[in-house]
């Protein structure tokens, strides 16, 4: 059994910062459970363009308001507490954060904790062996 608190993640290698977001990674590939789980906050007034070409991601909003744009078909969706979206077809997308948007994210395959978006918004497919 693993029990981990946000307090013990903050300021460690599991606390990953980027210009438009920060992600606290509770479960990583090294735990060997087939997925990773993160708390991610996207900063108010920012836009983050993403494309998970190598991962499937489920995102559940627990706080804040924003807008999700699906670049595959132009659809826009309101993001607010209680809304989940699943990037099951590796969609190119943008999240516009109107306020700080706090989410819980699950990735498959799991991330290692070292990933950040590249110039295309993609996380590289890393394994623990790449460390």
From TrEMBL:
Catalytic activity, reaction form: (2S)-4-acetamido-2-aminobutanoate = L-ectoine + H2O
**InterPro entries per the UniProt record, alphabetical:** Ectoine_synth, RmlC-like_jellyroll, RmlC_Cupin_sf
Superkingdom is Bacteria
* Pathway annotation: Amine and polyamine biosynthesis; ectoine biosynthesis; L-ectoine from L-aspartate 4-semialdehyde: step 3/3
Keyword Lyase set for record: yes
Residues in a coiled coil are none
Q: Which UniProt keywords apply?
A: Lyase
Pfam families from the xrefs? Answer: Ectoine_synth (PF06339)
| EC number, UniProt record | 4.2.1.108
Question: Family assignment?
Answer: Belongs to the ectoine synthase family.
Physiological role: Catalyzes the circularization of gamma-N-acetyl-alpha,gamma-diaminobutyric acid (ADABA) to ectoine (1,4,5,6-tetrahydro-2-methyl-4-pyrimidine carboxylic acid), which is an excellent osmoprotectant.
What NCBIfam families does the annotation carry? PRK13290.1
| The protein, known as | L-ectoine synthase
Organism, as annotated = Actinomadura sediminis
Q: State which gene encodes it.
A: ectC
